[in-house]
Amino acid sequence: MDYIKKLSRFIIPYKKFGYLNIFFNVLYALFSTLAMVALMPMINVLFGETERLNVKPVYNGIREIKPYAEDYLNYFVTTTNDSEGPQRTLLYMIMLIISLFLLKNIFNYLALFFITFLRNGVLKDLRDSIYNKVLTLPISYYSEKKKGDIIARISGDVNEVKNSLLAVLELIVKEPLTIVFAIVTMFTISVKLTIFVFIFIPIAGLIISRIGKSLKKKSSRVQTEQGVFLSTLEETLSGLKVIKGFNSEAHFNKKFQDSTTRFYNFSNKLLNRQNLASPASEFLGIATIAALLWYGGSMVLIENSLSGGAFITYMALAYQILTPAKAISKASYKVKAGNAAADRVLEIIETPSVLEDKPNAKVKTNFNSALHLNNISFKYEDDLVLKNFTLQVPKGKSVALVGQSGSGKSTIANLVTRFYDVNEGSIQIDDDNIKDITKHSLRNLMGLVTQDSILFNDSIKNNILLGKENATDEEIIDALKIANAWEFVKDLPKGIETNIGDSGNKLSGGQKQRLSIARAVLKNPPIMILDEATSALDTESERLVQDALENMMKNRTSIVIAHRLSTIQNADQIVVMQKGEIAEQGTHAELIAKNGVYRKLVDMQSFE
């Protein structure tokens, strides 16, 4: 149960519900035992075994509570039999038993009622914490993790932890107390018989513990495999066009079925091990009851050292131990399964982010002079993508980065926006190192338009509002006009309220890109980063998007990463990159005149 300590910060806000659960579980355990003990006087009344007592007993303190209770009950039965008859006495005994059982079940309900708030509260907070961590972890983290596995952890694993929380409280409070109260009462009825029972308990416990020994490992394999097939499903939904286009349905079908088959086999082993707990503990309990019948029966019939009523009550108490014992064995399995799930959940929550803001990071709200990249080097894995790269982007100027694929252009965008940190050198806005600025304020100064138009399954309005949450409809329409997007949005059935489907798939590539530009326009940041914003478009869409980009870039500092050189000929400076280094730089005319790398790239695209 180590994970309970690790999850304590999620449990503490709901601790009052835990205390109330414990309180009512104590009452439940107490009244469970009292309800069974109440059987004894009823049986004694039925068989006329009640000791006659006509003098009301005197209470002499807590130490004498047991004989006082017995004497008072015998006095009550004797006087009631004499005054109202044995049938009325039996009715009173039955009413007492019904009342005790009613109270027992009321307390059980109240215990479950309060624990519900703790379990669901922890579930909510765990999911919120994981989702927040998903948002704050660097992008590099997700290049190594499968999305489906993370989805499995935030759904299935967290749910498993929630279920195990109830099992923990059953394991440490409800069921053990029920057993303790029952055993204490059994000792008061017959010490000799109770010692005989204890011979069987260690044997039963050893067998049950052997059954559950490997449960955590089996549960972990099930949860991991669930992550695998959810990842396959997520990849299938994302890449359905490619799968169908390459007739790869059979390949992906086999991949998914292989995973579900493993999940099937792991689940069978896990559930069969869990299912063994209940019948094993019940059989061991019945074996104990059988031994009790033989040994206790001889005490009643041969030794006459135990009354019939006391023996039947004792048997009821012994059988009552079976239910919580079975519950404890089941709960211990749930705890082990919850432990495995908690390990997977906590792995994400406790993953440190390499891009955390410094404790004294400053909030930067303006951009005054220039963006500086000072002798930076960077690598994703082993090989350097950028080597001693230096660049200055003055305020109000546009700088274009061109070069072949793999030359490091998009890496510049990732580093400037601090999706990754440089390995060497520094990036500064004005005189501030971006590592000394909060990420939130840094990205507030920047607008980003990527090659892939990332839109969400929502209305056009809500997609654009990501740029400025409190913008009016008029501001949204103005941004759409600057992005050359209003011309198609105004003709849609619901205008800006039109839902654009998953990833904006109801729109064409050019339309999606213009919405991405409108989102950046609405944000109105001082620095704009355009990462191959037109490379995936046809000629007509490119012209519309290019016009939109030029509208947006007026009097704005811009870093333009371009594959199509026709889109950057008006840039104030063009930087030609080769293998992470600057090959040459200058204006379009200057670079053409140099007749170097840039000229070759231009000629390859048949543009002069």
Short description:
62% of the residues lie in helices and 10% in strands. The strands form 2 sheets. Strands 6-7-8-3-9-10 form a 6-stranded mixed β-sheet, with helices on both faces. Strands 2-1-4-5 form a 4-stranded antiparallel β-sheet, with helices on one face.
Q: Care to describe what's here?
A:
This protein has 608 residues and is α/β, with parallel strands linked by helices. The chain has 2 domains: 2-16 and 107-349, ABC transporter type 1, transmembrane domain (ABC transporter transmembrane region fold); 370-604, Rossmann fold. It contains 23 helices and 10 strands. It has helices spanning 2-6, 8-11, 15-37, 39-46, 65-84, 86-136, 139-142, 147-189, 191-198, 201-211, 215-238, 240-245, 249-301, 308-349, 409-416, 439-444, 460-464, 473-482, 486-489, 509-523, 539-553, 588-594, 597-604; strands spanning 370-379, 384-394, 398-403, 424-429, 432-433, 446-449, 527-531, 557-561, 573-578, 581-586. Helix 4 packs antiparallel against helix 14 (308-349). It is elongated. It is found in: Cell membrane. One of its GO terms (molecular function) is ATP binding.
